[in-house]
Amino acid sequence: MKIFTAEQIRNWDWYTIANEPIASLQLMERVAAACSNWLLEQRYAQKPLHIFCGKGNNGGDGLAIARQLLTQDADVTVYILETGKKGTDDFQRNLELLHKYTSNIHFLQSADFFPILQLQDVVIDALLGTGLDRPLEGLIAELVQHISNSPATVISIDVPTGMFADKSCKDCICMRADHTLSFEVYKQCFLYAENAEYCGSIHLLHIGLHPAYYEATIAAHQIIESKTAQAICKKRNAAAHKGNFGHALLFAGSYGKTGAAVLSSKACLRSGVGLLTVHTAKCGYIPLQTAVPEAMVETDSNEQHLSAASADLLRYAAIGIGPGIGLHEETANVLMQLLQQAHQPIVLDADALNLLSIKKDLSALLHTDCILTPHPKEFERLFGKVANDFERIERAKEKAEELNCVIVLKSHHSFIACPDGNAWFNSTGNAGMATAGSGDVLTGILTGLLAQGYNTTEAAVLGVYLHGLAGDFAAAEQSQEAMIASDITAFLGKAFLHVSQTNV
Ligand SMILES: NC(=O)C1=CN([C@@H]2O[C@H](COP(=O)(O)OP(=O)(O)OC[C@H]3O[C@@H](n4cnc5c(N)ncnc54)[C@H](O)[C@@H]3O)[C@@H](O)[C@H]2O)[C@@H](O)CC1
Ligand SMILES: Nc1ncnc2c1ncn2[C@@H]1O[C@H](COP(=O)(O)OP(=O)(O)O)[C@@H](O)[C@H]1O
Ligand SMILES: [K+]
């Protein structure tokens, strides 16, 4: 699914108004109906509703919702933040209409008139939407804080008031919503970890915007959905043999971190690879052979860390390096040799990325078939500090282009930046995956997919989606608290079944 900017969404409204055609007021009525239906279905309309409106079209939505729910006998109180200015045409028209249904409309001119909100109350936040053009201050900022600090359930219309659709609102005042009802497509602001506590659960409601605009409009970012992954996932030939699914090589583990090698190896095997060889420190031989009998193990000459690259790299279809390898100088040489000699796709994770950030000149050896999978801290070590999540995404896109490789920025909604400018946010995954070793599992999956012939973009998009989906299945079974990284691998099978359903 495409992610649109606030400007693109505005243009989509206008395109629909001109080409459906439909009057702007009628489109607002449709928006309000989608929200009212959701509130009725979720039984929020049975509770005392406090609808806070600004004087723009977001406020117009709020007024129309108020009127529609009054016809359903809801208990509705409307508050309009008085700015002294006239509202938009659609706001004014909806206010005239609302006066025919209720007199329970209050104009807020100072904080003295803010209502006391209780636990059972439901607030509809229709103060400001995508028209936000500056950070909140003054009375509106006070009102947003008053509502956010109350025990009431807060449901924001389109965006939580104070949140910019396309830029950071870090350190600004913003409504803390329990739910955000938005329309048709995700806005970029919903996908950043720094905004997650303000958005609550996001619900995309269908309001019948014109499909031709969606088709014709180029979006800078997309969201990976089930059908995106389904389109990539290849069906297995019934007569296939293991030679068809590639031979992967993982450089993983060192003394005290053989577990990372075990986690990435198991995930690599569960991703469908034909053969797997793990190159690890000598001390890892017995634990690996015992824990992962399906893998072949090639031991390094050093007891505790990696000191030499594999003798014959040509045998392998794809290589993964990083989980638990440590930062020894000799291990840095292994990474250098590998980048110099290997022409097959390579996944670089964890300490391979940390070594890359220590020895910056190694970056010149990266090539189009490399995938880098930093978490935000590794990203900062590699590419420097950023002020907020929006800046990090922009830096990731710049670096993917500059280094000519795929960057998977791991986070709440992991972000994939490709050298050709394509970029995706992931839609799967949960906070239960914030547990040691989850990243090692992803390295194994990506290496396994590359070995099977998926290109770097396909492997990143499919692998990140499957990893998150397996994490979601694991959390459903085990709880977010109790799940551990190996549970993600255990549920990879269920994730594959889900993704390949339409391919069978
Ligand atoms: N026909 C349409 O145009 C539709 C509009 N829709 C709704 O309209 C919204 C956008 O409406 P608008 O463009 O009128 O924008 P808003 O309703 O977000 O309000 C914009 C107004 O707020 C002022 N403002 C901006 N930042 C402020 C701040 N920090 N403090 C105080 N005032 C501030 C602006 O100067 C402007 O007057 C969407 O979010 C959506 O909810 C939907 O109903 C879909 C259809
Ligand atoms: N809150 C979250 N929501 C979704 N995914 C998450 C969340 N926290 C972590 N993850 C995922 O879990 C993985 C963690 O990777 P990483 O930080 O490298 O872990 P480790 O170093 O322990 O292996 C990433 O793929 C990340 O996207
Ligand atoms: K709002």
From TrEMBL:
Pfam families: Carb_kinase (PF01256), YjeF_N (PF03853). Binds 1 potassium ion per subunit. Its cofactor is Mg(2+); K(+). (6S)-NADPHX binds at residues 57-61, 129-135, 158, 260, 324, 375, 440. K(+) binds at residues 58, 125, 161. The keyword Cell inner membrane does not apply. Keywords: ATP-binding, Isomerase, Lyase, Metal-binding, Multifunctional enzyme, NAD, NADP, Nucleotide-binding, Potassium. Its EC number is 4.2.1.136, 5.1.99.6. Homotetramer. PANTHER family: ATP-DEPENDENT (S)-NAD(P)H-HYDRATE DEHYDRATASE, ATP-DEPENDENT (S)-NAD(P)H-HYDRATE DEHYDRATASE FAMILY MEMBER. Catalyzes the epimerization of the S- and R-forms of NAD(P)HX, a damaged form of NAD(P)H that is a result of enzymatic or heat-dependent hydration. This is a prerequisite for the S-specific NAD(P)H-hydrate dehydratase to allow the repair of both epimers of NAD(P)HX. Catalyzes the dehydration of the S-form of NAD(P)HX at the expense of ADP, which is converted to AMP. Together with NAD(P)HX epimerase, which catalyzes the epimerization of the S- and R-forms, the enzyme allows the repair of both epimers of NAD(P)HX, a damaged form of NAD(P)H that is a result of enzymatic or heat-dependent hydration. This is Bifunctional NAD(P)H-hydrate repair enzyme. It comes from Lacibacter luteus. The gene is nnrE.
